[in-house]
Design goal:
This protein is an alpha/beta fold and about 325 residues long. The chain is about 40% helix and about 20% strand. It contains 15 helices and ten strands. Mean pLDDT is about 90; it is low at about 1-10 and about 10-20.
């Protein structure tokens, strides 16, 4: 169906009485049970229920964004939460994908404020004169670096950014250091026990794992060179971000970095009316999604439509245009 025709159809939907809103019964593939994505799933379910009391979005715990793209590619789920960086790799057919994934379509951006952090033990930073990730390779410091587990995009991004700054695994090992794979909360425990010297992750400012590191260990937040940030944005479709001064105990100045975002994705198998219904529910009842966690306070209807890495589903796009959210 051509976009003009879809727009007319959606316009008719908008003028219909709210009581006639279509109900939906969909499965959303997310991440770990109890994590932020499961909360977002609950918020989206509340939003569609506000739109139509018979609607339901059922949350399905998975291994995360890469796993969700696999499910979407095989049309084994209706919706998936996926990082923008993961989508960029999938569209290009880069690892871990063996070929481009071509059937994905966006419904809405959920957030774009999960910045990459690089925390280093303060004593090591002072001993080796390290203030930026660009200093690590040339300092000779035997840094043991926590990297998120395989299959988590933040681990890939951290390795990419460190390599762009001159620190690949060979250089790190030559300095007597190593990479250690561990999740966000595990890295906090490892820092407290002195089993790693550095923690890396892309997650909200003040996330519980970062608070634990900041409150229980003496760490500094390392600077990131502008060319490294630019290279990461180019490779992963992410955006610039500033971690404001004072966000952490020993942080006296702003730290420039890049931030990952996450969006709700469907496939070209979804019909236009269902996609338009989701767009209407998420934008009209955005407060239901915002309420799931304090970190979601910045979510607005305008943010929902701000992603640029993936085409919107035509039904969702037509609704957003009719509602004045897209030009």
């Amino acid at each position: 169906m051509k976009l003009k025709t879809i727009g007319l159809a959606v316009g008719m939907m908008l003028s219909a009485a709210a009581g006639h809103a279509q109900s939906v019964d969909l499965t959303l593939s997310g991440g770990n049970p109890g994590g932020l994505w499961s909360l977002l799933g609950a918020g989206m379910d509340r939003a569609v229920k506000e739109d139509n009391g018979d609607s339901v979005i059922t949350y399905q715990a998975t291994g995360g964004g890469f796993a969700n793209i696999g499910l979407l590619a095989a049309n084994r789920t209706d919706l998936g939460l996926v990082h923008d960086a993961e989508i960029a790799l999938a569209l290009a057919g880069e690892e871990p994908f063996s070929a481009p994934v071509t059937n994905m379509m966006a419904i809405g951006y959920m957030y774009n404020w999960a910045p990459m952090h690089f925390f280093l033990d303060q004593d090591m930073a002072e001993e080796y004169g390290i203030t930026s990730i660009a200093d690590i390779a040339t300092s000779g410091a035997p840094v043991t670096i926590g990297i998120n587990r395989s299959g988590n995009i933040t681990g890939d991004v951290a390795l990419f950014m460190l390599a762009q700054a001159g620190l690949d695994e060979e250089t790190l090992e030559a300095n007597g250091g190593s990479f250690v794979r561990a999740g966000a909360n595990e890295q906090g425990d490892l820092m407290q026990d002195g089993r790693i010297d550095m923690a890396t992750n892309g997650i909200f400012i003040g996330h519980s794992s970062f608070r634990a590191i900041d409150e229980n260990t003496d760490v500094v937040l390392l600077d990131i060179p502008a060319d490294v940030i630019a290279a990461a944005n180019e490779a992963f479709g992410t955006s610039d971000f500033v971690i404001p001064a004072g966000s952490y105990s020993n942080q006296d100045a702003d730290v420039n970095t890049m931030a990952l975002g996450a969006m709700v994705v469907t496939t070209d198998a979804m019909d236009d009316e269902t996609a338009a219904t989701l767009a209407r529910a998420f934008s009209t009842y955005v407060d239901e999604i915002r309420a799931v966690h304090g970190a979601m306070a910045q979510l607005t209807p305008e943010l929902l439509v701000s992603q640029t890495v993936l085409p919107f589903h035509p039904g969702a796009e037509a609704y957003y245009r009719e509602a004045g959210l897209l030009e």
